């Protein structure tokens, strides 16, 4: 199994190109199941989760053709993928595939809308809480689908003539369930109004792509989304939006190590709340032509309390990284997690680097220390693992991160991007 070796202490200086967002690319790829025409996606990141979804879509009959990757001057890659699902080959998404990545469960929406039926395994994914699927079941049932759980699978069946538009208000905000409702309602008969919808930029990106495919959607980005169903969707060309989690992660790394880095190909407007928190911690963050500039001052990190919330609140996917930053603050800070009940696995690993963190329910109390020391640590989930990398970059001496396959799910060419900015970081294979 690969490991990542880091020798900490170097400031980061240079340019880091930000990739397309994993969390936008996945639902956009799944949207290709809604049409028999070709959907072309630009700026698709090269990540383990994307590769796995390509396999899963292949199983459902999607033909995939990937344009060669072209490297630009700033080290970024352009990757364009064409998806064509002339006919759906299989409406079953098997356990072997769905258990590896929770988002693959979302195929239930387009399969049900286009084929009138779907049999999809209950999901797996990161071990960060129970992550049930009740909202998907309720939402699709509101569109008239018969939903039944049988042997670890959900069997979904649309009424004769297809799904029927309806009013449905989610009892809790869910990004995935909002994606699925958007896709399913786009091909339903009549109008659907989704209340308490997720407002994440990735939901807006999916809605924009569906609109380009001929869907009639308004209100994406607000809590109420209205969808007027259409009989069929066509192909389109769409560019995946930049990864705000990758952006925030590198911004926090610079805030922690010190240095001056331009994050290119991204947009400060995607992460206002996180930028605000990083600024309060003492780093300078500003919008520049084509990206964001971050200037960190290393030792003068101020303590900042954060609470994770659905967008536009502080993203849960940046919680572990921000906690990493706070381990070196001049004082005590608190990090409260409200989205997932078990998302503090990084705490004990950060403690191995010398961090002082105590947990009480959903809140971590972090007492900043003047220095961290490198140590062997283990990645436990995708975002937790990158907080250990950030910690290692700021720690004295060597940090060895094991189980880096978690990182490969969500961070494209991480070692390369950081090395270009002066970090000592390498992958050790085997
Ligand atoms: C997506 C993101 C993930 C991010 C999360 C929250 C992708 C691929 N993943 O995950 O990186 O951390 O949003 O921003 O985009 N819930 C239920 N019942 C359901 C569905 C969800 O109770 O049927 C709960 C979950 O357990 C969780 C909360 O709702 O407590 C939010 O989860 P959700 O927004 O659905 O997360 P994902 O879409 O899986």
Task: Describe what you observe in this structure.
- With 430 residues, this protein is an alpha+beta fold.
- It contains 14 helices and 26 strands.
- The protein has a 4-stranded mixed beta sheet. Strands 2-17-19-18 form a 4-stranded mixed beta sheet.
- Strand 20 (306-307), helix 10 and strand 21 form a beta-alpha-beta unit.
- Helix 1 runs parallel beside helix 7 and helix 8 packs parallel to helix 10 (319-326).
- The protein starts with a strand and ends with a strand.
- Mean pLDDT is 94; it is low at 125-129.
- The structure holds uridine-diphosphate-N-acetylglucosamine.
- Residues 23, 26, 102-103, 129, 131-136, 172, 174-177, 316-317, 339-340 line the site of uridine-diphosphate-N-acetylglucosamine (UD1).
């Amino acid at each position: 199994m690969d490991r990542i070796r880091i020798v900490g202490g170097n400031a980061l200086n240079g340019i880091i190109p930000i990739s397309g967002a994993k969390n936008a690319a996945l639902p956009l790829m799944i949207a290709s199941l809604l049409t028999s025409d070709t959907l072309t996606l630009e700026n698709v990141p090269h990540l383990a989760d994307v590769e796995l979804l390509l396999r899963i879509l292949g199983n459902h009959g999607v033909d995939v053709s990937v344009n060669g990757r072209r490297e630009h001057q700033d080290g970024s890659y352009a990757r364009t993928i064409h998806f064509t699902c002339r006919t759906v080959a299989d409406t079953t998404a098997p356990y072997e595939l769905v258990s590896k990545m929770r988002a693959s469960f979302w195929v239930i929406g387009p399969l049900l809308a286009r084929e009138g039926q779907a049999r999809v395994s209950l999901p797996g994914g990161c071990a960060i809480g129970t992550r049930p699927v009740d909202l998907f079941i309720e939402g699709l049932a509101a569109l008239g689908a018969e939903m039944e759980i049988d042997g670890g699978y959900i069997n979904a069946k649309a009424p004769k003539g297809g799904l029927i538009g309806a009013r449905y208000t989610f009892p809790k905000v869910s990004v995935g369930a909002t994606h699925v409702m958007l896709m399913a309602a786009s091909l339903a008969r009549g109008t659907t109004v989704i209340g308490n919808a997720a407002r994440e930029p990735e939901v807006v990106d999916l809605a924009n792509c569906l609109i380009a495919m001929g869907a009639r959607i308004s209100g994406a980005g607000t809590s109420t989304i209205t969808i007027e169903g259409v009989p069929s969707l066509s192909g389109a060309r769409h560019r995946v939006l930049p990864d705000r989690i990758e952006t925030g992660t590198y911004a926090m790394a610079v805030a922690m190590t010190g240095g001056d880095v331009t994050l290119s190909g991204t947009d400060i407007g995607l992460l206002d709340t996180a930028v605000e928190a990083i600024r309060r911690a003492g780093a300078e963050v500003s919008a520049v032509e084509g990206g964001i500039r971050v200037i960190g001052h290393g030792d003068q990190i101020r303590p900042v309390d954060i609470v994770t919330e659905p967008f536009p609140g502080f993203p849960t996917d940046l919680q572990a990284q921000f906690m990493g930053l706070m381990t070196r603050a001049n004082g005590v800070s608190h990090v409260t997690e409200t989205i997932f009940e078990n998302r503090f696995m990084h705490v004990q690993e950060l403690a191995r680097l010398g961090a002082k963190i105590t947990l009480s329910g959903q809140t971590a109390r972090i007492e900043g220390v003047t220095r961290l020391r490198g140590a062997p640590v283990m990645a436990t989930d995708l975002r937790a693992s990158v907080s250990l990398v950030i910690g290692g970059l700021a720690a004295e001496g060597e940090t060895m991160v094991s189980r880096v396959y978690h990182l490969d799910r969500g961070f494209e060419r991480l070692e390369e991007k950081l090395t270009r900015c002066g970090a000592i970081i390498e992958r050790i294979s085997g």
